[in-house]
Amino acid sequence: MEQKDRELFRKILFDAVAIVALALLLMPLHSWVYDTPFLNYSENTQTSASDLAYSIQREQLAAQPSSEISIVDISGISGSDTRGVIAALLDTIYQMQPRRIGVDIMFPAPSHFSVYDSLLVATVERIADKTVFICELDSYSPRQNQFLSCSHSFYHRVKGISEGYSNLMQDGDNKPISQYSLRQMAVDSTVVYSFPAQMVIDYLDESDFTDNTPIIRFEPTDFPCMSHNQLDADSIRDRFVLVGDMRAQSDSHNTPLGFMKGLEIHAYTMQTMLEHNPIGHTNVLLLFVIAIIIGFLYTLFVVFVDKKLAVDPTNMMKFILQQGLLTMGVTYVLNLILEYIAYVSFTVFETNFGLHAMLPSIIKLIAFTKVVYCIVLPMLSKRFGWRWLRLSNYSGFSNPDDKNKN
């Protein structure tokens, strides 16, 4: 009996190793088909735990009022004198003694009303000492790993002006914005800081720049938001004040707290930097190795189940259905466990453990590989009769007991 058990274990181990090895060989094909390399899952794994935690906090926690950051909404300002009205607004805010003003408005070219352009330029000169204006980085070159151009407002050459790029970290899809960029290399090899970083740069030290793409702390926060014609001096004095359009349809982005305006994302980013407490990351390669180990244990389990239940791969539809249901069941249970671990690791230890973002794809690839393995191996065994194929449970699904009976 012990010899039979050892023989069965050797065959199960052989099949599990062979299936996982074949799955690893198929990973480049999977990456090519789905255009998502497995070792390129860093962004998903680095932010998945925080996204999960903040989406839960959104439902459970009341938003806390911000004591440092306020927003002034310019929506509703229109007409030929728009630039003149905004110039007067910025002057008024400046006189209320904010800590710093962030102007999230682009004026790419002079208007036909030169008098209002002159008023705006004069205001920019007066408030430049404590104001940051936005620019936008354009034409990113992956080969050079830098942006090749930058768009500015027409007054960007005013002496003493400070600018920061307003680009958010996104790649055109609808996944939540979870990280921010601190600085980028410009085409002339100069370092350009982001708009939120430029706003609080006087309050940062070198340790805050260790990670160039930190995770945004989206703890639900209520940032005081005032209309441009209803300013509150107490909500401006000695605070960081962001000025922009809170109703612009084109400036709405998905976040762990739901869709949010770019100005609010900048506010959360600044708040994160001012806390000087970055969220820890789990090494992506370590997560990948752990996922492969779990995938191997999963393979041992399903091969053992096949043997015990005498699963017959010759009945193709039944076999694929059994494998699919087993894979979905195991993946679902594992995801529940791993999501709970991710939530606890983030909320208690402030570390992202995003294994649940990587493991399902690996399990599914192993399950697909196993189906292929179980179909092809008997065909090879029948066609070539290679002796080493006898080490597998799937080389013809012969039972060791059958030999003894003969």
Quickly give the structural class: alpha/beta
Number of strands: 13
Count of helices?
10
H/E element order: HHEEHEHEEEEEHEEEEEHHHHH
Q: List the domain count as a whole number.
A: 2
Strand content: 5-15%
Helix content: 40-55%
Apparent shape: elongated
Radius of gyration: 29 Å
Measured distance between first and last alpha carbons: 17 Å
Arithmetic mean pLDDT? 80
Low-confidence stretches: 34-43, 397-406
> What does the largest sheet look like?
7 strands, mixed
Summarize the structure.
The protein contains ten helices and 13 strands. With 406 residues, the protein is an alpha/beta fold.
Structure description:
Strands 2, 3, 4, 5, 6, 10 and 11 form a seven-stranded mixed β-sheet that branches. A two-stranded parallel sheet has the order 1-9. The protein has a two-stranded antiparallel sheet with strand order 7-8. The longest helix is centred in the last third of the chain and has 34 residues, at 316-349. The model is unreliable at 34-43 and 397-406 (pLDDT under 50). It has ten helices and 13 strands. The protein has helices at residues 2-34, 42-60, 82-95, 114-127, 195-200, 262-275, 284-309, 316-349, 359-384, 400-405, and strands at residues 64-65, 69-73, 100-103, 131-141, 146-151, 162-165, 183-185, 191-193, 221-222, 225-227, 240-244, 252-255, 258-261. The radius of gyration is 29 Å and the shape is elongated. It folds into two domains: 2-41 and 282-405, no CATH class; 63-275, no CATH class. It is of the alpha/beta class and 406 residues long.
